[in-house]
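Researcher: We plan to redesign the surface later, but first we want a full-length starting point. Tokens attached.
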């Protein structure tokens, strides 16, 4: 166990940028989980219909996962900032192509 601690200490000391990214990722996951948890509890208190609560919880899980992937992607990949531009151009091209084909 001591050997593992020594290796971990060496790893953290030798790669501060990677360590920062790991801590940011863990922090983002914890914050998003906490926000989802609190929001679900509020919804459970306010809404009596179990099916509605289930749908809210399911949709919040999807939204949280999507936002988490985007935010964590920005932490790990610098080029993710241009993803919005790429998706915008892709959707415009798709719309133009469908419009021309008469669909």
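Model: Full-length starting sequence:
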């Amino acid at each position: 166990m001591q050997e593992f601690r020594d290796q971990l200490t060496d790893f953290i000391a030798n790669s501060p940028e990677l360590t920062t990214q790991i801590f940011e990722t863990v922090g983002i996951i914890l914050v998003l989980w906490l926000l989802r948890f609190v929001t679900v509890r509020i919804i459970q208190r306010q809404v009596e219909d179990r099916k509605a609560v289930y749908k809210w919880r399911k949709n919040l899980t999807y939204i949280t996962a999507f936002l988490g992937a985007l935010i964590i992607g920005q932490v790990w990949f610098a080029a993710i900032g241009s993803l919005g531009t790429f998706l915008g151009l892709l959707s415009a091209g798709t719309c133009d192509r469908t419009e021309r084909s008469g669909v």
